[in-house]
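Priority: medium. Attachment 1 of 2:
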């Protein structure tokens, strides 16, 4: 019997520039998020989950249309912002993304666009990762290189990435417009939620809002002044589709809180 020929072991060739890389997968601690009072697939019908079922419905109707009205332009791009820091915009963005991810035929991309103070990964219990700014700063960084798949099969995350002193210019650049077009149009069933900087703190939020189909403005009860709300709305007056979340409001005389999101 002839001796079998031994084949040489060849080195694996390096990935070619521009080649698609499989998205990274991260594990969300859903039990921890549930303990924090956030929306999760296994969290049941909590008050917070019910709140966001109500909040998401008109947003989805605008994004997808219905029997009577067509979808609005870029309605699947939804920015969540606030007038000032600390009003709960990041928690609202995460909860909204988790709630929409429960829909039967929708996928969700949650984008941390608050580059100066990124919070999405921290809230989700994940370490910092490259993301949005790395795409805009490097020609060779593609969306597929930095997007994070999660153990919630319909939810992916695009981190903020590294900070840059030219953030406003980058968000207003043609590269950002091209990226938004790719994000909005590549997958017909995708809803994209952007956690944005506060409107009265930076110029980045207004620049980003101008490119969105829908805006959700989080207003903290008993803290945000009417003047601040009016000024925030003035900065996004060019955007026709604005919804408000009145956050941390007391619903009952006994002092129980309704919709308390930090």
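Attachment 2 of 2:
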């Amino acid at each position: 019997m002839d001796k079998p020929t031994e084949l040489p072991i060849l080195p694996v060739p390096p990935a070619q520039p521009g080649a698609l890389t499989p998205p990274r997968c991260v594990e969300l601690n859903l039990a921890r998020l549930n303990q924090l009072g956030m929306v999760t697939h296994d969290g049941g019908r909590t008050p917070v989950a019910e709140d966001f079922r109500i909040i998401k419905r008109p947003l989805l109707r605008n994004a997808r249309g219905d029997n009577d009205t067509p979808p609005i332009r870029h309605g699947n791009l939804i920015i969540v912002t606030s007038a000032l820091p600390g009003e709960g915009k990041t928690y609202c963005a995460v909860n909204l993304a988790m709630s929409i991810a429960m829909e039967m035929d929708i996928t969700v991309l949650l984008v941390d666009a608050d580059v100066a103070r990124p919070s999405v990964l921290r809230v989700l219990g994940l370490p910092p990762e490259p993301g949005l700014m790395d795409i805009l700063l490097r020609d060779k960084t593609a969306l597929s290189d930095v997007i994070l798949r999660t153990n919630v099969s319909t939810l992916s995350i695009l981190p903020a990435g590294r900070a840059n002193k030219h953030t406003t210019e980058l968000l207003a650049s043609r590269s950002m417009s091209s990226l938004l077009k790719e994000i909005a149009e590549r997958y017909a069933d995708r809803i994209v939620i952007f956690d944005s900087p506060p409107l009265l703190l930076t110029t980045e939020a207004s620049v980003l809002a101008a490119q969105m189909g829908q805006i959700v403005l989080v207003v903290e009860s008993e803290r945000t002044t009417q003047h601040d709300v009016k000024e925030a709305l003035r900065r996004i007056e060019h955007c026709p589709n604005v919804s408000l979340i009145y956050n941390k409001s007391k619903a009952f005389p006994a002092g129980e809180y309704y919709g308390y999101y930090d």
